[in-house]
Amino acid sequence: MSTLVSPGITLAALQRTPLLDPVDQRILLCHALGITRTALITQPDRALTDEEAARVSALLQRRIDGEPVAYLVGKREFYGLDFTVGPGVLIPRPETELLVELALERLPPRARVLDMGTGSGAIAVAIAHARPDAQVTALDVSPAALAIAARNAALNGVSVRCLHSDWFTAVTDETFDIIVSNPPYIAAGDRHLSEGDLRFEPPGALTDHADGLSALRTIVAGAPAHLVPGGWLLMEHGYDQSVAVQALLAGQCYADVQSWHDLAGIARVTGGRAGHG
Predict the structure, then answer these.
(1) Integer CA distances (angstroms), 79 to 7, 94, 132, in order
(2) Is residue 140 marked as binding?
(3) Has residue 196 been placed in a domain?
(4) Which CATH number goes with the domain that contains 155?
(5) Overall pTM surpassing 0.85 (yes/no)
(6) 237 within 8 A of 191, measured Cβ to Cβ
(7) What would the pLDDT profile of 147-164 be if each residue is shown by its tens digit?
(8) 152 is in an annotated binding site
(9) Is 166 annotated as a binding residue?
(10) Spatial CA neighbour of 234 closest among 90, 105, 62
(11) Does one domain contain both 100 and 220?
(12) Which of 8, 87, 238, 258 is deepest in the core (most CB within 10 A)?
């Protein structure tokens, strides 16, 4: 059976062979060979053994077939931290860093924070890392996701309480200073679900299997009972959903309802404050 990479090829020659996006190819080469980017540059004449060539070929082929780089290497950087990821959780994305930044700007001292649908724990861990005084709770309905979130909290040396929960069920009588969420918001049948990395990510973390707003409705309706007076609810949503999410918040009498744009100029996060006591 033919392979993409022939035994004996040097690192320099391999990097001149454009099998993938150059950045993806470099990341996968380093991962397959267990070397740093510096080694990749400083050892141009290193020739691959038969076993190394087979390993590199297999990994590059999986990427050509569409598997996300983050799943292939088992990690992804988010908010300057390293996170373990796998097929059971959504891959953290740069645009979600906006949600973290907005939350950090609004945290009072010793804040109680709730991250709903935490997945890999990226949002919860990033907040806990930036604000060690905060008490951060992360919820998810998936035990597999919670295990990864707990692993990421330990990896980054932070304390996050991880609870198995169908939205608010595990925190019935608790209140928080801020609630954040990046829930499933892609509508059923959206063509993006069959494109790119999304084909390999867990459907339940991407789509509500409805109109894309059902999870957001549940959070908006339930959050007031779990927010202190004046506490913030901040939610990530789709590129075309800000008006609808603002309407949901206004309908539940949240104050200061507004949306914030990511670096691409897309209205990515919408939020409001619970009623004042």
Answers:
(1) 38, 8, 15
(2) yes
(3) yes
(4) 3.40.50.150
(5) yes
(6) no
(7) 999 999 999 999 999 999
(8) no
(9) no
(10) 105
(11) yes
(12) 238
**What type of residue sits at position 69?**
V
194 is in an annotated binding site: no
Per-residue tokens: 212: 């894309």
Residue 74 labeled ligand binder: no
No. of helices (H) and no. of strands (E), the chain: 11, 9
Question: Is position 120 annotated in a ligand binding site?
Answer: yes
Is 157 annotated in some ligand binding site? no
Separation between Cα atoms, residue 76 and residue 70, nearest integer Å: 6
Return the closest-CA partner of residue 88 out of 60, 48, 121.
Answer: 121
C-alpha dist (Å) from residue 275 to 82, 117, 144, 229, 260: 37, 24, 35, 6, 21
Examine residue 111 and state whether it is found in any structural domain, yes or no.
yes
Q: What does the alpha-carbon distance between residue 159 and residue 53 come to, in Å, rounded to a whole number?
A: 41
So what's the pLDDT on residue 242? 97
Strand (E) positions, the chain? 75-78, 81-84, 112-116, 135-140, 160-164, 176-181, 227-236, 255-261, 267-273
118 marked among binding-site residues: yes
* pLDDT 10s digits, 20-73: 888 899 999 999 999 999 999 999 999 999 999 999 999 999 999 999 999 999
Question: Is 79 annotated to bind ligand?
Answer: no
Q: Judging by DSSP bridges, how do beta strands 160-164 and 176-181 pair with one another?
A: unpaired
Q: Using CB atoms within 10 Å of the CB of residue 65, give its burial: 0 to 12 exposed, 13 to 18 middle, 19+ buried.
A: exposed
pLDDT at 1: 41
Nearest CA among 183, 248, 180 for reference residue 215 = 183
Domain span at 52: 11-65
Helix (H, G, I), strand (E, B), or coil: what is residue 180?
strand
**Looking at the DSSP assignment, which residues form a beta bridge with residue 258?**
271
